[in-house]
Amino acid sequence: MEETPHLTIELVWEDTDLEELSISANNGRFSGTAKVYFAQGDVQLLANSIRGFPKTTSQHETFAGGNETDYPFAKLVFRCADGAGHPFVHVALAETVYHQGRRLADNRVELELSFELNALDQFCGELDLVAQRKNKRAVLLGVAA
Which of 21-24's residues contact partners 24+ apart within 8 Å by CB, and which partners? Predict the structure, then answer.
């Protein structure tokens, strides 16, 4: 069964300094999930940075957390595919799997997700609600590749 292409950011846990986000992505062919720590307020920074995207076709916005060499890790890069301004997000997610305290595997996925600009507007509104703790999840609906 094919899943609808999407990028989902969900608030899992928080304290006064950190928030743990579960970030999952699926482009119809590849998918992955990683739980990564970010600083408090980073969700609002993401919403603000991609609101009205793209302002130019060369604009790119990056949202990253964790450590790229010592998992978990997540990196989202919003950019345009071409001079016409067709938007997509490059998603890199990584997490280490443990069993009974023993490291079993390092899992990593990278994919690209195309989306419509109106879906990004809705995603920004949902990120605002997550940042205000009025909701736990924001979903960017993608288009099939």
Answer: 21/65, 21/74, 23/74, 23/76, 23/91, 23/93, 24/93
Predicted confidence (pLDDT) per residue in 126-137, tens digit: 999 999 999 999
The reply to whether the predicted model has a pTM over 0.85 is yes
User: In angstroms, rounded to a whole number, what is the distance separating the alpha carbons of residues 76 and 70?
Assistant: 17
Q: Is 143 exposed, middle or buried (0-12, 13-18, 19+ CB in 10 A)?
A: middle
Contact at 8 Å (CB) between 127 and 134?
no
Q: Tell me, what DSSP letter sits at residue 77?
A: E
Task: Work out whether the CA dihedral 135, 113, 51, 67 comes out positive or negative.
Answer: positive
Give 25's strand partners. 7, 32
